[in-house]
Amino acid sequence: MTPRIHRRDFFKLTGAGAVVAVAQRGPERGMPEEISAWLHIGENGAVTLYAGKAEMGQNVRTSLAQAAAEELGVSVESIRMVLGDTDLTPWDAGTFGSRTTPYLAPQIRRAAAAAREMLMDVARDRLKADRTALTAAGGKVTDAKSGRSITYGELTRGQKLLKMIPADTSLRAAADWRVAGKHVRKVDGRAMVTGAHLYPSDVTRPGMLYGKVLRAPAWNAKLISVDGSAAKALPGVHFVHEGGFVGVAAADERAAAKALEAVKAEWSESPQPSEREIFDYLRKHAGPPQGQGIRRGNIERGMAEADVRLKQTYTVAYIAHAPLEPRAAVAEWEGGKLTVWTGSQRPFGVRSELASAFQIPEERVRVIIPDTGSGYGGKHTGDAAIEAARLAKAAGKPVKVVWTREEEFRWAYFRPAGIFEISSGMKRDGTITAWEFHNYNSGPAGLQTMYDIPHQLIVHHPCRSPLRQGSYRALAATANHFAREVHMDELAQAASMDPLEFRLKNLKDERLRAVFAAAAEKFGWGKKKKEAGRGYGIAGGFEKGLYVATCVEISAPANGPVKIIRVVEAFECGAIVNPDHLENQVVGMIIMGLGGALFEAVRFENGRMLNPRFSRYRVPRFSDTPPIEAVLLNRKDLASAGGGETPICGIAPALSNALFDARGQRLRSLPLLPPRTS
Amino acid sequence: MARVRELLVNGARRQIDVDEARTLLSVLREELGLTGAKYGCGEGQCGACTVLIDGVARRSCVVTVGSAAGKKITTIEGLAANGRLHPLQESFLEVDVMQCGYCTPGMIMAAAGLLGKNPNPGEAEIARALDGNICRCGTYPRIVAAVRLAARRSK
Known about the structure:
The complex is a heterodimer of chains A (about 675) and B (about 160).
Chain A: H1 10-14, E1 17-24, E2 34-41, E3 47-51, H2 60-72, E4 79-83, H3 100-127, E5 134-137, E6 140-143, E7 149-151, H4 152-156, E8 160-166, H5 189-194, E9 209-213, E10 222-227, H6 229-232, E11 238-242, E12 245-250, H7 253-261, E13 264-268, H8 278-284, E14 294-296, H9 299-305, E15 308-316, E16 319-320, E17 328-334, E18 337-342, H10 347-358, E19 365-368, H11 383-395, E20 399-402, H12 405-411, E21 414-415, E22 418-426, E23 432-440, E24 455-461, H13 477-494, H14 499-505, H15 510-523, E25 534-543, E26 546-555, E27 563-572, H16 579-598, E28 604-605, E29 608-609, E30 628-633, H17 651-663, E31 669-670
Parallel strand pairs in A: 1-8, 3-4, 9-20, 15-31, 18-19, 23-24, 27-30
Antiparallel strand pairs in A: 1-2, 2-3, 5-6, 6-7, 9-12, 10-13, 11-12, 14-24, 15-22, 16-21, 17-18, 17-20, 22-23, 25-26, 26-27, 28-29
Helix pairs in contact in A: 2-3, 10-11, 13-17, 16-17
Chain B: E1 3-9, E2 12-19, H1 24-31, E3 50-53, E4 56-59, H2 65-68, E5 72-74, H3 87-94, H4 104-117, H5 123-129, H6 140-154
Parallel strand pairs in B: 1-5
Antiparallel strand pairs in B: 1-2, 3-4, 3-5
């Protein structure tokens, strides 16, 4: 049973004051109330907000503070946020899937609104005022009639006010927002520019040692024997061998690395598939399709009704998240209780991993996630946390484990490679009648087509992946959008139609039409004269309630280098919470996405990654960055959705389509450019 | 093996006692508690560990502490003078550059090295000078804007 924050715990954690918690029913009926967020107003008026999310650069610390400040009538700066601490914050599934803004932010608003109302009730009694004459702003309640006011701290002094509210309380409409909807600067920016901000890899504990873990020479290699006697003989070195785990801890990182070098180990390997055969391998190791797939109409009839039929195959490579901060953890055992500071998107998931690894109840494990040096879907697991905890337990001292860049590349997990087989049919006038889409291994996110096609068959085939794979930014939506939107371009070409016109002809969704129109207008789509060596490409899509359209212009002379001249992307995610931070996210995702589009690929042979360094695995740099314009459509009438994933989906297909426009050559595999021969 | 017993860091003489072959980065972080310089790659390819050595931006992950001894080392923690932020620190805040912020100290130090040589760099010069610094969140356009702003302010 997962321990959860209980109402009787609140004041034990915080001392006196006022607490409001948002309670929802658990996932199963009859479960005890489940708290999704809570806040405390202390006797000094300080507001502290507790939520189980992790900050990795999405700026949720700022956007959630804005949500609370909005309802509570206090400044953003006056709110302290406690995030991702399994002893203090409510249980949370994890920070992924663009869920913070649509699901958690409204609950924080509800908690803050309820706290405001509760304080106003107390103020009414204290001031003996007319409730309707009271206003809450600037951290105090003011009586308009008498002009008297009373601060939140005075109202909560010596009190233990507790209110549990249901998760469906009504909220202030986006059109009436005063704090949210506007630019507020990153709340912890000063600590970042002065170097004071402590990331997981910066955490230290008294008496802490540095740990290193022995890695296999290849994926899936088995440990046959290990001899740690030379390592053990070194002064101050702790050597640990438990099952398949071999590691050392020493006073500094260099001493630990030297001790690890002294460990002798024998491994057994068996042959593993290499990069050149990966797509054959995945096809041969495809399992049964996942579920029924998406079926609409009758695919055979749709094909029979078509005048033009097209069949093509697309592929995407494994790519790495390569967060700039590699996996890191500091573990400390004290009186049978384990505390781990680590960088992960799933604090409570890591707690479960630790409890199970050490066979202890979850109550005896505390996981704290200091704001982390990014994740992009790549930090769901607790690998480093378990390693640090093993070493700390054996050494009897706190131990820090920070993965090297090479370890992060080799032993984390990848965005899946995938194969896409698309068969389509259309009328001579460009009306699509049939769409059959098979995705092998890449994953089901963003699988459905947004185009209005009467006959569809869309299937995801999970495969046995020889490489460890997992989530990525927007999951499989990047890959599914690439295949779909390049194929749409091929159909437009077959119909001799403009790619935008062709898409709009087959598209009814108004929100998607709006982003296509906005991007095309800003870009000047169709207005440029055709020049040799210039190409224009467009692509769009939707995922998780978010809509994106991307236009690119490139220079790509027949035998010359490819250069992106400009990118315009329109994006719509409902009511915008922080427009400047959203722009930052959208531009950043285009830049990250152009790496996977143009040059990122995991090179591997027989169980070994061949390019596990930044000198060999190319990621986007300043010199790769084109001028980028983001057009943000603000739909105040729609609920806010999360903006940290979907904007990455448009750039890869738009670039492939632009390359075709420039060179007349269709590129159906990511990355689009051949590896550098240097 | 020779030992290094003193470093000149951020205007102060700091006593240490470490093997000269250790990287400057590990000594700054592990011995002196200056964790602003970050580990990102260990091969001088990402710039997260950038510090100034005698005013020149250097990758502290590939500099041995022995070779830095006796020279003036400035880390991100020493950039603000008398509690006043450096113009680059101000401009990074004003442009609201950061997402995860892990690359930020290295970016600011690399930019400080650039402004030391060229007080008024254009966008292309900034991009060239900082091309060895990686930001995986993709905040490059804002970093260029922030460096330009700091350069204008410093005139």
